[in-house]
Amino acid sequence: MVRYEFGDSERTILEKLNIPMAIYQFIDKRVVTLLVTDGMCNSSR
Q1: Domain count of the chain?
Q2: Which of 5, 20, 22, 32 is the most exposed place for a label (fewest CB within 10 A)?
Q3: What whole-number distance in Å separates Cα of residue 9 and Cα of residue 15?
Q4: Is residue 2 part of a domain?
């Protein structure tokens, strides 16, 4: 399976979200992280 790639503007908007969220894809029997939002990175603070 081919790894999904976000467009530059899409990625920028999604990464700046304050909602804790991560997007994953299952590729070759492995889970691969595609994107993590700022809300997820700052959720423990």
Answers
A1: 1
A2: 5
A3: 10
A4: no
Rounded CA gap, 40 and 13, in Å?
14
Residue 33 within a domain: yes
Sign of CA dihedral 13, 16, 24, 30: positive
According to the model, what pLDDT value does residue 44 have? 66
How far is Cα 7 from Cα 24, in angstroms, rounded to an integer? 16
pLDDT score at 4? 97
Site of tokens 């990464």: 15
DSSP, residue by residue, 8-35: HHHHHHHHT-SS--EEEEEETTEEEEEE
Task: Give the range of the structural domain holding residue 24, as residue numbers without chain letter.
Answer: 8-41
Q: What is the pLDDT of residue 43?
A: 72
Read off the pTM. 0.82
